[in-house]
Amino acid sequence: MKKEEEIIIMEVMRQEYFQRLLAWKDKKIIKVITGVRRCGKSTLLKMFRDYLLEQGVGREQIIHINFEEYEYEELLKPKALYQYIRERIIPDRMMYLILDEVQNVEDFQKVTDSFYVKENMDIYLTGSNSHMLSGELATLLTGRYIQIEMLPFSFAEYVQMRGMEKGAERAYQEYIESSSFPFASTLLMERKQVREYLKSIYDTIILKDVVSRKRITDTMMLESVARFIADNIGSPLSTKKISDTMTSNGRSINVRTVESYLAAFMESYIIYQAKRYEVKGKQYLKTLEKYYMVDIGLRNTMLGSTGQADTGHILENVIYLELIRRGYRVYVGKVDNLEVDFVAMDESGLRYIQAAATVREIGTLERELKPLRKIADNYPKCIMTLDVDPPADYEGIRRFNALDYLLGKIDF
After folding, report:
1. Fewer CB within 10 A of the terminal residue: the chain, N end or C end?
2. Strands across the sheet with 338-346, in order?
């Protein structure tokens, strides 16, 4: 990670993630930090390491390895890694083991487990692929780890980093035209550099996290599916619909291959899937999911667009990611033959959200209100828009500015 990126992120201090990490410090559980490449995982761990040193922890008590740095290439083999760590353990002192991009290590699960069972070991892992949390790791470490899933900058973090607290509308336009990736956010005035940087992230994800890991041979087809998803964020899709559409466009692909590609994209955190939820029957449905991109700037780069078009779906994408950041489980709601953009669930219950660029036309407002009015329970219901009009209430259904929600000025 470049020094400039570290400085910028340190200034913003991903406090939400940092505080969550601190809350688990010295607890007998493995901390696993996941997220798309370049979202700040490595910097978060460096911040944590520096915090430990400031608190009086000896440098010799910290074993910090980034497996994407060439100097540690010999440690990609499990026995070599095990020996390296074992030689540095100081008996009767708390040791902090920080393994960055650990998915690059063969059988890292077994190495991790072997040190977890030892006394005085506090373990932190990061990875850019959710596959690391499946299979053997889940079997070996069931009940022994917690996951902290990172995303690029939220809109609030972007505004803070840019110093644009008094220009939310302009900041939002920049946010969706540039990027939420921390380092790309600092290159706003150099759009060509932003595009090149995002293209490098995309190429790394596709080639390193998807093609090589899944041993995919038809890279062009893979990228065609990725662009199709990017071009259809917020639209109900099925694997059959994707297969049929691409086949009709002259790119024959079967449903099973589409499923495999989508799984690889989600494992690499480049796209997120929102499944459907039947509100009245309280049932989870298995068809017509929606997909969202981890970053609108990355989407623009993939599609060659500027972020100007498709305002409603872009807003929907941004709100979806914000709900995920805040710890909600997010679904697409089905109410009879109508749709609620989001059903957000947490320990306190449900929240129903409609996202629309504008509802100033009475017909648009009524369309957004209709599915919410059909829901009989008393959980909060709202419409978030980009309109700068004062908030309003329609028999318990609130309407307010989405940017106020994204900036934490209003909640529901």
Report:
1. C
2. 283-293, 271-278, 329-335, 338-346, 349-356, 381-385, 397-401, 392-394
